[in-house]
């Protein structure tokens, strides 16, 4: 992908001015506590995510990963503090609309919501309107512009050839990349990938991971939530490990993505193998 192609697939600053100042970190958490039924299900003492930084969030089921992500997306709120526990681009008082403009979210569960027969390009374009598809009464000129923007993003992700196909006829991997295009179409600063390779065959995994690499290389902030070392693309250099509702470790990938640390995180013996910039789970027995 050339630099010119990457530029054409994203809006310029003049086209889409930033909502917030870049003087502050993209995301800050300070003494953030989420309680359910009188019990703390997640506690984050201190966490910063810089603009353009890429990280992977790993942990077993029930560890608090999903709660962590929903703190980022503001779907849930932590306990009140005198110092705001969550700041996005330096601000604690922001609307859900502003959050959605700053973030794009892709998850395997979103695919279950695709139950209508629509062209894939319309599904991708629907991300401009927070819809699955285009609004029914949209002005034809606006609809054409939305589809053109969606096609630019689909080209960036290498799926322009399926633009006119019924999304329900696509393979699972192709449909997953359409959802990535939908999350990217409004040009958010950050993309959150929540278990993006769940349910995919090796081919689908390859293309989804390649899409993540393309976006990271284009300057998007990438937050990956996963169980699998294979999902941690080379551009991700930082890991945040979550266990029992707290941050278990936070640091460089080379130090944390090891057999000993992963075994302690998941409480089962695990062997991690590194080949160049790639990591893989060799065995868990």
Note the topology.
Layout: H1 3-8, E1 27-36, E2 39-49, E3 54-58, H2 65-72, E4 86-88, H3 96-102, E5 103-107, H4 120-125, H5 140-156, H6 172-184, E6 190-194, H7 202-217, E7 221-226, E8 238-243, E9 246-252, H8 253-256, H9 259-266, E10 270-275, E11 278-284
Parallel strand pairs: 3-7, 3-8, 5-6, 6-7
Antiparallel strand pairs: 1-2, 1-4, 8-9, 10-11
Helix pairs in contact: 6-7
Beta-strand percentage? Answer: 15-25%
Low-confidence stretches: 1-20
CATH homologous superfamily label: P-loop containing nucleotide triphosphate hydrolases
By helix and strand content, what is the structural category? alpha/beta
How would a textbook summarize the main sheet?
Answer: 6 strands, mixed
Number of strands: 11
Topology as H/E string?
A: HEEEHEHEHHHEHEEEHHEE
CATH architecture: 3-Layer(aba) Sandwich
Shape: globular
The CATH topology is: Rossmann fold
Subunit organisation of the chains:
single chain
The number of distinct helices, counting runs of at least 4 residues, comes to: 9
Quick recap:
GO terms for molecular function: ATP binding. It contains 9 helices and 11 strands.
Would you write up a description of this structure?
The protein has 285 residues and is an alpha/beta fold. It has nine helices and eleven strands. It has helices spanning 3-8, 65-72, 96-102, 120-125, 140-156, 172-184, 202-217, 253-256, 259-266; strands at residues 27-36, 39-49, 54-58, 86-88, 103-107, 190-194, 221-226, 238-243, 246-252, 270-275, 278-284. The strands form three sheets. A six-stranded mixed sheet has the order 5-6-7-3-8-9, with helices on both faces. It has a three-stranded antiparallel sheet with strand order 2-1-4. The longest helix is centred in the middle third of the chain and has 17 residues, at 140-156. Residues 1-20 have low confidence and may be disordered. This is ATP-binding cassette domain-containing protein.
């Amino acid at each position: 992908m050339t630099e010119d192609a990457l530029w054409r697939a994203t809006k310029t600053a003049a086209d889409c001015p930033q909502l917030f100042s870049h003087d502050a970190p993209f995301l800050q958490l300070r003494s953030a506590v989420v309680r359910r039924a009188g019990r703390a299900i997640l506690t984050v003492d201190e966490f910063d995510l810089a603009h353009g930084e890429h990280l992977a969030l790993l942990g077993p089921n029930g560890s608090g990963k999903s709660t962590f992500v929903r703190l980022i997306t503001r779907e849930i709120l932590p306990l009140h503090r005198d110092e705001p526990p969550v700041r996005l681009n330096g601000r604690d008082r922001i609307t859900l609309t502003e959050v959605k403009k700053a973030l794009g979210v892709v998850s395997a569960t979103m695919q279950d919501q695709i139950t209508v027969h629509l062209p894939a390009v319309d599904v991708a374009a629907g991300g401009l309107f927070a819809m699955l598809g285009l609004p029914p009464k949209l002005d034809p000129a606006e609809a054409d512009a939305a589809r053109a923007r969606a096609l630019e993003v689909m080209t960036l992700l290498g799926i322009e050839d399926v633009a006119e196909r019924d999304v329900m006829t696509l393979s699972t991997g192709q449909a997953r990349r359409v959802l990535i295009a939908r999350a990217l179409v409004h040009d958010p600063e950050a993309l959150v990938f929540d278990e993006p390779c769940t349910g995919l065959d090796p081919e689908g995994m390859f293309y989804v991971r390649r899409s993540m690499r393309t976006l990271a290389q284009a300057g998007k902030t990438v937050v990956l939530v996963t169980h699998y070392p294979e999902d941690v693309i080379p551009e991700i250099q930082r890991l945040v490990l979550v266990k029992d509702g707290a941050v278990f470790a936070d640091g460089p990938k080379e130090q944390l993505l090891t057999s000993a640390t992963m075994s302690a995180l998941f409480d089962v013996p695990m062997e991690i193998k590194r080949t160049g910039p790639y990591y893989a789970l060799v065995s868990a027995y």
